[in-house]
DNA sequence: GATGTTACTTTGCTATGTAAAGCAATCGAG
DNA sequence: CTCGATTGCTTTACATAGCAAAGTAACATC
């Protein structure tokens, strides 16, 4: 990965292609912390449900809470288990098989980390909304922004 | 499929399989509002970037901000455009093609709605964490919860 | 005019979410 | 005791979709 700064020597000949003091830090909106395993509607719901039910949830309750189909839930649980986010226990209640799902400690932790990234996403969005709403900023009072000249539709 | 309520008569004999006053409302954690088009790491980043830059962003700036590859960004922009979330303008700057991307008004709106759902996800998670931390609740002080008897590992 | 750079687009592979079908155990009716 | 229905999941199959790598086009440079 070496020193990215040095590449500038061969590039910043006659045009500073990126104002040095620019607030646009690279990767600012990459949201690296959004783990694929967690960042998925269904799984997000499952994990949230389990957070609210530390004692665990039965397959069917989970299914209802997240409005998932059987197969769907089954699949996602597999994945979550393989990722060590949940633990799955099999038992019998009223002569029927019953599956109990619980967050692992690691799962709780990783979910918490994920959520903290989500919070920053929300914070970014809110900040942007506020900025857009204020008067002196770029968007100002104009309902539609004029385009930089020389641009035409897609 | 008839009347689901009536099925209860044949079921709620000796076990109310779902306490009527139960807080577990069906679909509580379904998070329906998490639009597929928006709920995607890369696209989420793109939209967040654009929220913070109402005047629009150039292809390459967007690429850097979101740490995406060219192809990747191109593909996502297509999708976002097809969903009418962004508008894309082609132009020439310094004898090079330049693509400017901006949120549409609809895009801004739908993103805001999405974000409000995200906020509720975060709220749920925080609420759960708080509940778990308190003393009198189910998790209490035990580091590991005992399993309901009759359950064995996956 | 050949090589390189910038700025994207297109293509192809792979992974994944989702619906539909499958399976095993039990229950209830006749 | 056999038959069909129900419960509680699992497995399979497919269509989407993300992602990387290759491709294209316009200019710039040597």
Care to give the gist of this entry?
2 copies of one chain form a homodimer. The first copy, chain A, has 154 residues and is of the alpha+beta class. Chain A is built from 4 helices and 4 strands.
Question: How would you explain this protein's 3D organization?
Answer:
- Two copies of one chain form a homodimer.
- The first copy, chain A, has 154 residues and is an alpha+beta fold.
- Chain A is 40% helix and 14% strand.
- Chain A has four helices and four strands; from the N terminus they run H-E-H-H-E-E-H-E.
- The first copy, chain A, has helices spanning 41-52, 59-66, 70-82, 105-133, and strands at residues 57-58, 86-93, 96-103, 151-153.
- In chain A, strands 1-3-2 form a three-stranded antiparallel beta sheet.
- In chain A, strand 2 (86-93) and strand 3 (96-103) form a beta hairpin.
- The radius of gyration of chain A is 24 Å and the shape is elongated.
- At the A-B interface, helix 1, helix 2, strand 2, strand 3 and helix 4 of A face helix 2, helix 3, strand 2, strand 3 and helix 5 of B.
- Chain A binds a DNA duplex (30 and 30 nucleotides) through residues 40-42, 59-60, 68-76, 78-79, 95-99.
